[in-house]
Queue: 2 jobs
Job 1
Amino acid sequence: MIKHPITIAGLLLAMFAVIGVGLVAFTHQATKAQIAENERQALLNSLSALVPATSIDNDIVTDLTVISDQEKLGTAETTVYLGRKSDKPVAAVFTSIAPDGYSGQIKLLVAILADGTLGGVRVVAHKETPGLGDKIEVEKADWIHGFKGKSIGNPDLARWKVKRDGGDFDQFSGATITPRAIVKAVKNTLIYYQENGKKLFIAKPKTVKAEAKTESGK
Ligand SMILES: Cc1cc2nc3c(=O)[nH]c(=O)nc-3n(C[C@H](O)[C@H](O)[C@H](O)COP(=O)(O)O)c2cc1C
């Protein structure tokens, strides 16, 4: 018989530890599929805001390609979600990054329609200053809607700048750095598409875990 109180306490502790670890493992396993589904749904919602579900007939969340152009797309690996209808290209949604926000990277979804015009832009994550730089969020201002329908040539490439720099896009009062960074990133994504767009849709669909979520990242 084990009678020593320290031994009994040790055994009890070990028992609770085993039960605790078991419970955590069980909960993790049980919620994993739900979390993956929630992430997929969040991504699908973000993509559907830019590429209407009725305009495509493929699963845009899993029909994707991963490309690399650090200079134009702001990161070494960029996922591009591909929308197709009857196997014809409808839209490419780039997970571009504006590397030079006021407080670092601004993560974007840039949707480019097959004709080279923008289906729209959304900010997925950023750390810009509330009240100054955060008017880039669709929930806070209309500014981000200004990209829809624009393209290289509308306006001319030279006017893809904020007004302060001689371009066509509004800056915010007291905050020029944030919108400047986004205008540049969207322009560079359009240029990438102009140069490589056709190749994107030739790539075989590759299935990976849904990765982008809509959040302001603060
Ligand atoms: C505490 C603090 C936070 C700021 N946050 C931002 C920001 O998030 N985005 C931005 O563009 N400018 C921000 N600014 C202002 C920039 O430093 C810079 O002055 C401004 O972007 C330049 O725009 P302007 O020429 O219109 O003044 C911030 C300034 C301070 C002092």
Job 2
Amino acid sequence: MTLLLWDQHTCLPLQTDADIDLLSRYRRTGGVVVSVNAGYAPHSLDDTTRLLRHYRGAVNAHPDLELPRSLEDVETITRAGRIAVVFDLEDCAPLDGDLDNLATFVRLGVRTLLPTYNHANHAGSGCLDATDGGLTAWGRSLVSEMNNVGMVPDGSHCSTRTGLDMCDVSTGPVVYSHSCMRAVWDHPRNITDDQARACAATGGVVGITGVGIFLGPNTPTLEAMTGHLEYAIELVGIDHVGVSTDFSFDFADFNEELARNPHLFDDSYTSWGPIQWMPPETFLGLGQHLRRRGWKTADIKAVLGGNFYRVAQHSWCFR
Ligand SMILES: [Zn+2]
């Protein structure tokens, strides 16, 4: 299988000494694009900028990894079987309240941002909030400015209404970088059919993700992922479904984040015991798995990477 594989969200330790070589676990013929998280709700502009500088320096020094400076670069890097690295943010906190910082983050390689991480902030409501007020007026400006600077609005972790409002406001594709389908497994981090339909209507992509507690009863298997993929494709069509791992390379680091920020999570995260993730080695077998299920090559190509590539073509801006 030599098709492009695109992981729209993966998680290195959020530390300025994190070992970037962990990403070598994605190495495969056909190449990979990985979007590495570079900050979330507890992080400031300063924290995130320092983290991005570390990641970027380490990627530049690594023979298998590269920061694409154009979409042609993405093609060249992945065709050579190497790993193209881009970045994403979870929550608007790293903006320090200033929309001008979006352009700064684009220059540092950030391609997607989700406005709210589980709980309300001044952009809008999160998926674990008791009441859902949708996007605020500032949140609407945030989405518009993302459109202007070439960053893709991401509805994962947002409330249902925030996600729907983002699709209303955005003039370009909206994605769900790492969200499974609530009709398949009822979890507050999973999205409704309406959210998936609205995302597809913008030309966007729902990234079915490899987290055990979102796929089912803590079951991060290719079978469970395929169940969500096939449901989503039936609902919104083959052009609007993709994949991500949300893999945490350092489980201890994630558990420390959870312990350090208990207000950001609830029972829906902890009641199944330690969260199980789909490791890159399993994720790399997805294409073979879908082929054995009888999927057509064109469909596998779209879901593995073609659809997220199309969104990038439409939206990304290199400065
Ligand atoms: Zn997340």
